[in-house]
Amino acid sequence: MSNTTSDNAADDFRTAIEAASVRPLWELHSGPMKTEPTPVPPHIWRWETMSALIDDAARLVPMEDVERRVLTLTSPPLKDTQSTTTTNLTGALQILLPGESAQPHRHSANALRFVIEGGGAETIVNGKPCPMNARDMILTPDWTWHAHIHRGDARIVWFDALDVQLYRHMDTNFYEQGPPPNLPLQTADDAFAVGGLTPAGNGETSDSPSDHSPMFRHSWESVLQAFEAMPAAADGSRKLRYTNPLTGGPAMRLTECYVLALARDRETAPYRTTSEAVCVVADGEGTSEIGDHNIAWQRNDIFTLPHWNWISHVAATEDAKLFMVTDRDALSRLGMLRDETRD
Predict the structure, then answer these.
(1) Which of 245, 313, 316, 233 is nearest to 279 (CA)?
(2) Which CATH class is domain 44-180+215-341?
(3) Below-50 pLDDT ranges, the chain
(4) CA–CA gap between residue 124 and residue 225 (Å, rounded)
């Protein structure tokens, strides 16, 4: 067969497959087969920088002009593809000034608020008031009505985390503006505050558990009390998981949250995982080795733990604690979660 005939046949084949809306796999994957995930670099948002930007946003952007006064944390390695914080998680900083409020709404994505600075505000979740004080975590699970109101005397700043990227990828994201309808009576969080005991026969109980915790507010005081009562791991660290008291599972489906307390000058056992995390420095100072990068952090800084990087942490102070939000539950449900450790 002549080269001309061969070229004509190739051109005809190319025209035919384009008309049929197919593509040859050998062209899509012409090089060596990829054998494992490709880690991306971490990124840190330093509080010194973000606090000044928050002041500017509060001064320049009145609440009546925007739906939410929010600064979304956009990781440089992802800005060309997603403009988000990690592959599956969106993190942001939200600001309310005294007397301001954010109107009720609900959406498909799960969300949480971890208070970085201030107090005196409330998030109302499905009609249940949840006070917001420094280091408290407030859950707003998927499709729950929520609003914010600030009755304090100074600005309040919190970290938002949402799994909205998953819903956008699947094109299953819904949003509804308030006001909400008449909502059923909610069981007070205090009813779930004693370990081993949960209310029965009233609302969401152990007989009819939901995919999210009936506790929407988790106080920092309760976190510190739990740390006092638990033993340390071999590397001196202690780790708490926020859970649904009715099931023992994650506090919200798809998104899991932890607090990691570190022992001073002791490196944690290195690990890597297919899940990703965003860390808020709740207390103290330290460093994290994330792949080939070493990040020094202090109180209120926020940084990412992208998937499949080897990760370890070292505290430089006695009180170092990291609040961590991850996509572990989403990956676990999909059969995509893989963890490795090394000595």
Answers:
(1) 313
(2) mainly beta
(3) 205-207
(4) 25
Look at residue 185 in the predicted model and tell me its pLDDT: 82
Boundaries of every domain in the chain = 44-180+215-341
Query: Which 8-state DSSP code applies to residue 212?
Result: B
Pairwise CA distance, residues 141 & 215, whole Å = 11
* 122, amino acid identity: E
**What is the rounded distance in angstroms from the CA atom of residue 252 to the CA atom of residue 141?**
6
Q: Are 155 and 132 in contact (CB under 8 A)?
A: no
Q: What pTM does this model have?
A: 0.92
Q: Nearest to residue 226, comparing CAs of 253, 245, 213?
A: 245
Q: How many CA atoms lie within 13 A of 3 on its CB side?
A: 0
CA distances from 155 to 2, 68, 71, 260 (A): 78, 15, 15, 27
Cα 165 to Cα 263: distance, rounded to the nearest angstrom: 34
